[in-house]
Design goal:
Helix content is 39%, strand content 20%. The protein contains ten helices and ten strands. The chain has helices at 2-25, 48-61, 74-82, 95-103, 152-163, 178-184, 196-204, 233-236, 253-266, 269-277, and strands at 37-44, 65-72, 89-91, 113-117, 120-125, 143-147, 189-193, 210-214, 225-230, 240-245. The strands form two sheets. The protein has a five-stranded mixed sheet with strand order 2-1-3-10-4. Strands 7-6-8-5-9 form a five-stranded mixed sheet, sandwiched between helices. Helix 3 (74-82) runs parallel beside helix 4 (95-103).
């Protein structure tokens, strides 16, 4: 009887040791097998709020997918991608940056789509009592917050000022400097900002009397920002946001498929409702 008990004990011990060895060597299910799938999204700063909302909604249905957003001006993000930054999806606030990446062969063919339209608006902080009523009399402000020309909202602002006769025509309006704008406005002090989020914060906090942001940037700040003018498309042109998957040498087939799935979600009817709620126009071609 004791021999049987000893044999069973030895068998159990051997079984335990074999299982431990297999686990250490990769046999069976490991932590790596359960690792989250990672998708990195580079998105324009003006998409920060709505994209955070959409990422949360997507993760409810896909808890094993890790979506990592990187928000900044489209020009900055474009340069990071060109310099080799790891990125799966680029969601730009303008066509120019996407065009550049596509021309350089960095966009996955057939994945580019136009998603939303936006509008530039002139804003001030609530209670400022500014004399500025819109684009044409921004020279009445003590100071302004404006994005630089490499930032889409800065480029669209410059284009609107050219079309309104405030600035002289230029072959590339994005190259019009902040000083040239200041001179055209009679020397008004301008806080040059690196992205539209910085402009929004500067005006909402009262650091600058007025500035130009996107209509979508005023969402949630209705009690702090006053819209003085929504600049017409006749002056800015369309403010189309394109999206595309970016070639990523670090990604495997599963990651590429997941990136495609998330891109499809960002252009779905569910996503359209989220964009509309945040003042984006989804009626685009």
């Amino acid at each position: 009887m004791n021999r049987i008990i000893r044999r069973k004990s030895v068998f159990v011990m051997i079984t335990f040791l074999i299982a431990a060895v297999l686990s250490a060597c990769g046999g069976g299910t490991t932590a790596q097998d359960n690792a989250d799938i990672k998708v990195i999204v580079f998105a324009a700063k003006s998409l920060n709020g709505v994209l955070d909302e959409l990422i949360a909604a997507y993760k409810k249905e896909n808890p094993d997918v890790e979506i990592i957003p990187n928000y900044d001006s489209s020009g900055t993000l474009m340069e990071q991608i060109r310099e080799g930054a790891e990125c799966d999806i680029f969601f730009s606030a303008a066509q120019k940056q996407m065009d550049t990446l596509e021309d350089e062969g960095l966009v996955v063919p057939g994945t580019r789509k136009n998603v939303v339209n936006n509008q530039v608006c002139v804003v001030t902080w609530k209670g400022s009592k500014t004399k500025v009523t819109g684009l044409k009399d921004m020279d009445k402000a003590a100071n302004l917050a404006l994005a630089d020309g490499s930032v889409p909202v800065g480029k669209y602002t410059r284009q609107a000022m050219v079309n309104a006769g405030i600035l002289p025509d230029a072959e590339d309006v994005s190259l019009i400097t902040t000083k040239e704008i200041s001179d055209a406005l009679g020397g008004v002090e301008i806080n040059e900002c690196a992205n539209v989020g910085a402009v929004t914060s500067a005006v909402a906090e009262g650091a600058d009397e007025a500035g130009t942001v996107y209509l979508s940037d005023t969402f949630g700040l209705e009690d702090r920002l006053e819209i003085l003018e929504i600049v017409s498309y006749d002056l800015t042109g369309d403010v189309i946001y394109p999206i595309a998957r970016i070639k990523n040498d670090e990604a495997d087939e599963t990651r590429d498929k997941t990136a495609d799935d998330f891109l499809a979600f960002l252009t779905s009817d569910t996503a359209k409702e989220a964009y509309k709620n945040r003042y984006f126009d989804t009626d685009v071609d």
